Fold:
Amino acid sequence: MADLRKIIHVDLDAFFAAVEQRDHPELRGKPVIVGGDPAGRGVVATCSYEARRYGIRSAMTAARARSLCPQAIFLRPRMEAYRDSSRQVMTILRRYTPLVEPLSLDEAFLDVTAATANGVLAVQIAREIRAAVRQETGLTISAGVSYNKLLAKLASDWRKPDGLFVIPPEKGLTFLSPLPVGKLHGVGPATVRKLSTMGIHTVLDLRNTPRETLIAQFGKAGAWFAEIARGRDHRPVQPSRARKSVGVERTFPENLEDRHLLLATLQDMAERVSARLQAQGLAGRTAGIKVRFADFRTVTRAYTFSQSIWRPETIAACLPGLLDNAIPVESHVSVRLLGVTVSALQAEEESPSHLGQMRLLD
Ligand SMILES: [Mg+2]
Structure:
């Protein structure tokens, strides 16, 4: 039976190194390696595309990387910064479907079958995601579009970095046939060696091998190999557990500097966050703001209430204080992004005391 799903796989390009190059413009265009100490026994976590030209790869020892490219710039990871960008990207993805399955900080599957039911093309959604990620995070993300996870993931890798590639159902087998078997999900180096001794090198070779032979050699895994060699993969996209926050954020076409305008924008966002909370029957305990400056420096400030919040005026009441805290009153800054979030979510409590909440702010 034909698989009619529309699956997108997205993967940020050289993620940790890209965040460093974004936050430190002097690193752009240079070989940058994020990972362990090259003087010790550390390994490369991620390296920039400039470093890859020297043959440097993830999981290589940092010492080896330095011998390949002595002028490379070695940085220790800033996980908080990477997590912040990752959260921002996952939030963008969830605008298109709740069926988002993050695989790591920089990768996720989306099932956009329902989102395409009204005639919107999956490739158009992929284009919008790529543009939004670039615009709102300053990072590039590659995307692959196909009819299952196996092919969507291969597709996102096909035009990296900053690429988009579509494998429609009728092209699936043609795409797979010439690939080395090691490209397939679940086919590791040991399996590649064993298949090689059987004269099986490409996916076409694998497809031409009887299923029973593969099962005899590899057991249950052999049945999987027979399936994926035929471009079949019915694994569902499994969204991550219940959401932990409801938020709204916006990148401005032109940076904002006026404090009254910033505050008015935050208050407007508080209304939208409140509407979303009420639509989902949720309330939270913590209200937070995010401010990203023109140089991409990002600060967050939060206030935790002792009771549930969901009303717009309650969320809005703590915004002036949070804004003053994020941007000291006398400072002159240029802001490219603002966000408002309510977190520490729970199902809405019965008749919480709105006045009680207000008193906490005094
Ligand atoms: Mg990546």
Notes: The CA atoms of residues 86 and 105 lie 5 Å apart. DSSP finds 15 helices and 13 strands in the chain. The chain has four domains: 7-14+80-172, 16-78, 177-229, 245-359. The domain at 7-14+80-172 is CATH 3.30.70.270 (Alpha-Beta Plaits).
